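Hey, quick one: can you model this chain's 3D structure?
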Amino acid sequence: MLPTERSLPKFENPPVVETVLAVEFEPLAGWGIPLFGLYWELIREEYPTHESGPALPPSGMTGGPQFPGVFIRAGSGSPFDARCMFHHAKGDRLIQIQGDRFIHNWRRTGAGGYLGYDRIRQIFESEWNRFCEFIGQQGIQPPVLRSCEVTYLNHLVRGEGWEKFSEMNALLRYWTKEPTGFLPAPDHTAMNMQYQIPDNKGSLVVQLQPSIRMTDGKEIVQLNLTARGLPATSDILGILSWMDLGHEWIVRGFDDITPDGLHKIWKKMEEPR
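Sure thing. Here's the predicted structure for all 273 residues.
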């Protein structure tokens, strides 16, 4: 039995559309642009298509609020300014690498169902080990970790448990009811909340942002939960142990902040007695 198979809240039809497992590490000494191509040759049979983009910025684990956002590092021509993304042949998985980051994304596709954390964890472990073996073959020392990250992206569709932004109490358990004073109901609502994981093990960031889903044009609220922290060790056991903690905080936090009305729509399963 995997250590992740514990008594956590479960849903038959959760609204999660993407799960991200990522590690950030000290910039790899010896990393260079040609290694992107060599790595792709290693995984090309499974990940036949690729794209490139600017490198993601440091996560900000050195202190202060850690609200995820969109940032671009100023380009200098360095290999650390680049990021490559490799798409799995099935279309539901993505590997992203840069000189200080390794990211595995699972994305729900139109025909596919939800892939549980335990299976995503297994895939991440296999791909991370393959990446570490690859850089070792290039004479690069094992990565020294800065942080681990687990992110769940959820789409809450208008008409499925909520209708108006004045009904945010239908989306979040702790939100007050529809305003009755001078101000009218809001047209849109967004928020950020951060919770500290005890014993300085990291933090959980909850983001809520209205959007239009590109695949079908539906109006949604995107609810993101990101757990980030530094594992006790940089080896795979330390990484997976922290990711299990991050996953637990996301699942319990998601269950805690979302109301019973949505739990019925998502078919929350009864916890074993």
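One thing worth noting: Confidence is low (pLDDT under 50) at residues 62-76.
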